[in-house]
Amino acid sequence: MNEREKQRERCKDWHRRNKDRVSTYSRRKRDEWKAYWKTHNPYLEGGEKRCSRCGHSLPRTDFYKANYKKDGLDCRCKDCAYLKNEAGALRRMLSKAKTRAKRRGLEFSLRLEDIKVPKTCPVLGIPLSYGWGRGCTRRKNFNSPSLDRRNNTRGYTKDNVRVISLRANHLKGDASVEELKAVLAYMCSE
């Protein structure tokens, strides 16, 4: 065991012995930072910040606010945070599809590599984006990508799945082509 590993073990041991003291201190500091950033704007503090993921020094406005952090900003720049959300969204999309397939007794043979997300929705032509609705509320973002089964009687297989926007998927639902044509004819006649 080299010197660096010994130092790491001593630190871990100290943290184990002082767990309560450390968590109390961390909680107190976090509360102090929250109180401070409620009255101050981290974007106006000046200077640049280095992104922990890509390593670029960027203006503070290129980071999301995080009032629980010492400097009031997230450690990742907005671009890296977006990429993190994108990768996480694909994994969640796959996981939820697997759960739905299991619950409904459908075939599931998708892998992460099988899901190709286009830049725009092939149905509505709107740009696809990740995350929640406006204002970081817990509403659905209808521009987010969604897995659509071409034939709803078949399972989640590579040849039966495509990615469209959540809005298009909600509009399509489980309607047949004839039903959608009937709805369109009714709406055009008004």
Secondary-structure map:
Elements: H1 3-17, H2 19-39, E1 48-50, E2 57-59, E3 63-65, E4 73-77, H3 78-104, E5 145-149, E6 161-165, H4 166-172, H5 177-189
Written description of the protein model:
The chain has a two-stranded antiparallel ribbon with strand order 1-2. The radius of gyration is 24 Å and the shape is elongated. The protein is an alpha+beta fold and 190 residues long. Mean pLDDT is 83; it is low at 133-138. It folds into 2 domains: 3-81, no CATH class; 107-189. It has helices at 3-17, 19-39, 78-104, 166-172, 177-189, and strands at 48-50, 57-59, 63-65, 73-77, 145-149, 161-165. The chain is built from 5 helices and 6 strands; from the N terminus they run ααββββαββαα. The longest helix is centred in the middle third of the chain and has 27 residues, at 78-104.
Q: What count of domains describes the coordinates?
A: 2
> How many strand units?
6
Q: What share of residues are in beta strands?
A: 5-15%
Beginning-to-end CA distance, first to last residue: 79 Å
Largest sheet: 2 strands, antiparallel
List keywords for this structure.
two-stranded antiparallel ribbon; 190 residues; 13% strand; 5 helices; 44% helix; alpha+beta
Give a summary of the structure in a few sentences.
The protein has 190 residues and is an alpha+beta fold.
